[in-house]
Design goal:
about 20% strand; binds zinc ion; 6-stranded mixed β-sheet; alpha/beta; about 180 residues; 6 helices; Aminopeptidase
């Protein structure tokens, strides 16, 4: 099985950071992506990164690559934000597109459950939105938002390599249990 791991955005994407600027979203997304790749490789999966740690790969390029490589599943990793200043919004949510396949929904449910179990975070549920990487990819696709960069407590978690590993383990477990 071939999984595309998509660390959202790029290292210098404008705006995508905590209010104090100490956390860039890509740092978290890529940290989880690297750890998830290791887990999947050790289990015999093939993985492909859609992102690049030197630039912000466009959404259309990510989608094209996934469709061209005919990957079996697409997982996009993100950290959330609510506004641009510190606030109380918190928790974890997983998305599929509005017209998602049953497989996409199953993967999203399994990953969301695993993330909540593994991290102890608050579940904001499985949600639907037509993000380009979900709508335009031809295979099952999900997008995880693993916590809020605009919440001080969660921003600290998102920075920690231990939390990044927990998220990677949960996504790996969720994929395994849903793709069986
Ligand atoms: Zn993002």
């Amino acid at each position: 099985m071939k999984i595309m791991i998509d660390a959202g955005h790029g290292p210098n994407t404008a705006g995508k950071r905590s209010p104090d600027g100490t956390l860039r979203e890509f740092m978290f997304n890529e940290g989880v992506a690297i750890r998830l790749k290791k887990l999947l490789l050790a289990d015999g999966f093939t993985t492909i990164f859609s992102h690049d740690n030197t630039r912000d790969v466009s959404l259309s390029e990510r989608v094209l690559l996934a469709n061209r490589e005919k990957v079996d599943a697409f997982v996009s990793i993100h950290a959330n934000a609510y506004g641009t200043t510190w606030n109380d919004a918190h928790g974890i949510e997983t998305y599929t597109s509005l017209q998602a396949s049953d497989t996409s929904i199953k993967i999203a449910i399994c990953i969301q459950q695993a993330l909540i179990l593994r991290t102890g975070g608050k579940s904001r549920g499985v949600k639907k939105a037509d993000f380009a990487v979900l709508l335009e990819t031809k295979m099952p696709a999900v997008l995880v938002e693993c916590g809020f960069m605009t919440n001080k407590k969660e921003a600290n978690l998102l920075k920690s390599t231990n939390y990044q590993l927990q998220c990677a383990q949960a996504i790996y477990f969720g994929l395994l249990s849903s793709l069986k």
